[in-house]
Amino acid sequence: MTGLTQMIMRRPDSEPSGSRWRTVLLVAALGFVALSLVRVITDQDVLTSSGTARAMLVLALPIAMAGLGGLVAERAGVINIGLEGMMILGTWGAGFGGWHAGPWGAFAGAVIGGALGGLLHAVATVTFGVDHIVSGVAINLVAAGLVRFLSEGVYVGNESGGGPTQSPQMSSGPATFDVPILSSGPDLLGRLEDTGIPVIADAAGVLHGLTSDLTVFAVIGVLLLPLAWFVLWRTALGLRWRSAGENPLAAETLGVDVYRIKYLAVIVSGALAGLGGLFLVLFTGGYREGQTGGRGYIGLAAMIFGNWRPGGLATGAGLFGYSDAVRLRASSSLAVLALVLLVGIILAAIGLRDILRGRYVLGGVLLVLAGLAVVVWAVADSLPTEFTAMTPYIVTLAVLASATQRLRPPAADGLRYRRGEAR
Q: Cα angle at 201 between 325 and 402, to 5 degrees?
């Protein structure tokens, strides 16, 4: 494996060093302080309440799972535009499994449904060499029609309450629990949240929300992110996996079964996207037509924002989930205006950094946008309902567009590979 290791490490694709991790943690801490400051200035406690943090986790997990599915496929060199279709198959499988066997049946149905979509994509792209984009788009279209056909055949005429656009409700939802010490027993975090002390109350509210009323499926979803990082960057399998996406011909000469790796990656990708559909079904209690709402595409965008890494992917998914949670839990548009102020502060900080690094044009543009955001917050008393509904998308696009990171996809991502071409 020495030659394979050298092949991968020649490219600037190593995980962040210790100094970079310290920088990431510092930026995260400063961002949280800015959020706390905005909460105090605007008097919008919903920004850091435990309920908002809990809702953020629920809303971010489907996107994170779809993005993680895209990441594991593209790290092996297969572009997976079909994440939305695989998530649709996962939601239908979760609805069917949940109807018959409860939450764990929904889990199995979601994974199997998504994995079947991944298998179809692998057969088309790996075995037959179909263009990855064409195959993914076809899966998205076929999945939407297939689940309608299945619903017509399985649920129509059923006395359990299903129909052509929905499955029967699950008899019971998943059990919930609180993390010991943090959110069970004496409500220490709840009391700290009620104090309103800047930073301390905000941290207590967020931590309380993320450690209470959890389900085992949410814990599984969260743990899959560090597990993916460990497998891809700390195991021999992960090394082979990434080699298939960086230089499959060289990997083949070193004994890697590239076909097998690609098949495994795309099937796992589909299973993860299907798992994202599970969280949607658990939230509503059953399958509903159109309930994915484009989250597969948003997950793909979060993956790209995260530079094909689990940590960055989780940040992008969390950003969208947080914006959506604030919108849903706010009693008025004032909370959304507070988010506008927060975006202005973030854009100003990034703009100043770019100016200090000599990027004067980009920094100036960001400072102008930051000023406009602050002006909107200062002069507006409310926002139109249409704008409020678009808040998660606007906030996410504004921050992601300003993130001047160096994106580098796997070198052989989307390229056609044929066994034996290296000989």
A: 50
